[in-house]
């Protein structure tokens, strides 16, 4: 009976909220436009993100394309190339190349910005649409104090591994999905996903020194993504301790990421 | 005959409520009993005048102290205030604590606020104990329950007003109490209001000096009114508000900033004395608000400041019907339901990092509906049967999205739990002659895990130093109880003996969890509540009273319990042998009493499993004297002086958490004026 009431109540609220949406201008997504540019051939390129600011972290980045007539272009080939210009040298960072999504009507990809914009250097994101490049100057914010959403670790095999947190994007007390991207530095411009590592995992609250039970170590699920579970028993600052192994060889003993909520 | 027995049994019982009803009308076997069952605090009539005087000056003592003197009851002590009652060493969820049949649950995760801390002796008429689960009409449990019976205003033929004021002072801790009460009554309306304020500083233990953080401050106000709605019926309203502040708990890591309770009830009463029918229907609500405080502790003892508030909200209703079919046959039925919502949280403030928040009790809610049936019938002058049954359906769940999410990380599967609990009792008493009463009872008790045992989220338990995690899938704890009693009395001598045993199944206890890190800084590890296959508690109570002269009474009350788990290991919080011996002189206006309270040592303890260490024995001598002084313009003035712990012994008892020494010598003065 009570459940029936709940269902009724929820369906009512659902209807109300749906009808509200219908009144607003149709937009299949709720992304924030952060920049816009036009290619040489006149294609307008909108750059979108989940937040106003891009930061030192794994950032989902979206692109919307329109031709001169204002029609949506759905079948272009789009690639991202992040470039950090550090005056004496340039480097890139790990990227997930975009693919078109018919639900959001956007090209969806991601970029891991590994350091903030500032005196050290500045970031540009080159978006290539069907071989036509447009370049956006992007400002990358420092991650909040006591957080570290991406970090690079020197492996025992002399390779550099970048570990970036994808999930939880909005951590809560209790069980959270954990998703990481692990990439390897091939050279300054190429950071391919690292597949097939074994990851040991334990969270800790540094200000108290305790951990939490029932965590699930992330396992590789494709394209360098590793998914598991993390249990946050309370809000506050949490450190995710990760041990990266190739077979039984330990590559990185204590890779760690920090988050706070 | 057989059919009659079975019918009687099926009709269930509640000996105590039934007995309670009769009490108001005068004499009753229960009330005359020396051992247990009914502790009169504010006698309406009956008893001798000097005894009443003695009681009246007890109104200034703490409910805790009255309970502590009650045979069978031992108090778990965490500070100088708000001790937790245990009955035959059964405690917490194993017994039910109710106020006039109302369910109420403390809000503190550290058990700082047992129900008894929210009522004052001046709210109470009596404390009723039920020792068998099926006899208890107020809830399911292993060992019956303690019902705090509120004082009742009563109608009077002519308009009457009476009032009293009193105050007391205790040298140890400079404790001070002041109270006042008023009664107004006429033929169709009666009202009674009472208030008390008490304050105490830190007390001193004999040779250990001042015990820091043993202070308290509180007030309690209550109002109760009845309005006649017919020749046989009346409406009654009760309201109690109790607020404590700045209460120290020397045995715990935190104190209490405030502990507040509001208790309200409205009831309809129908009494047909000719047809021996009593029918009561009541609706009630209570809210308990509790906040712990570590800000007054020295900085070096606090690793990190934290806030730990908690609330408990209960609403319920019951309807109970008692019918005296026949002078020798008394039936009672009760339908009872309640809902209890708990919430407790902890926020820690680490230096230089963001606050850390979690629920220690993430919104557990219990809904329950119970049915009680009880019967008392005498086959002949000598043989009386008391069958009783209590059935309860209980549903526990977690309220709130955040709360559920938090627990999703700890417990797998469904968090909700439903249970059907049944408590059955059969008591027999046999009076071969008027001097002798022999009794036996067999019962089956069962209780649900408490909401703390089901859903605790790193709740620190100071006695063993572990963080506790609940277990939503705990099986109900049950027990088979057997007891025998014998009593002899003649005109100036009375002796009573009880022997009892509880054989538990699925006894709820903590078990160490490997690989869990502690939440509380300094905790030894993490334990989870589990069911032990079995455990047992057994013991005896023995009491004597002898009046060698009209004015002199000697009495001795002795209790002993012992408990073992399935591996033969001593259970925790089991009181050792205790004997209270007293001599009382009571003349017309004067009463003098000397008493010794002796606890033997307790060495039947277990450190590795339950974290207990042995406790040495102790003996304390107390003296008291009271006198009623006739004065002008008032009915009477009562004065009493008490000297507790005469020889200033340094001592503590086995149920004193952390073995903090109890108060040394304490001189108490009390006066009350009756207008
Ligand atoms: Cu913590
Ligand atoms: Cu508390």
Helices and strands in order:
The complex is a heterodimer of chains A (261) and B (675).
Chain A: H1 2-23, E1 32-38, E2 44-49, E3 54-55, E4 58-66, E5 78-85, E6 90-91, E7 95-101, E8 106-112, E9 122-129, E10 132-138, E11 140-141, E12 150-154, E13 160-167, E14 174-184, E15 198-204, E16 216-222, E17 225-232, E18 237-246, E19 249-260
Chain B: H1 2-10, H2 15-24, H3 29-32, E1 38-40, H4 49-58, H5 63-68, E2 73-76, E3 84-87, E4 96-99, E5 102-103, E6 124-130, E7 145-150, E8 160-170, E9 175-185, E10 189-200, E11 204-205, E12 209-210, E13 216-228, E14 233-247, E15 255-272, E16 277-293, E17 305-326, E18 329-349, E19 356-361, E20 364-378, E21 383-398, H6 401-408, E22 417-430, E23 436-447, H7 451-455, E24 457-461, E25 466-469, E26 477-489, E27 493-513, E28 525-549, E29 552-565, E30 578-586, E31 590-599, H8 607-610, E32 618-629, E33 636-644, E34 666-674
Parallel strand pairs in B: 4-7, 25-28
Antiparallel strand pairs in B: 1-6, 2-3, 4-5, 6-7, 8-9, 8-34, 9-10, 10-13, 11-12, 13-14, 14-15, 15-16, 16-17, 17-18, 18-19, 18-20, 20-21, 21-22, 22-23, 23-26, 24-25, 26-27, 27-28, 28-29, 29-30, 30-31, 31-32, 32-33, 33-34
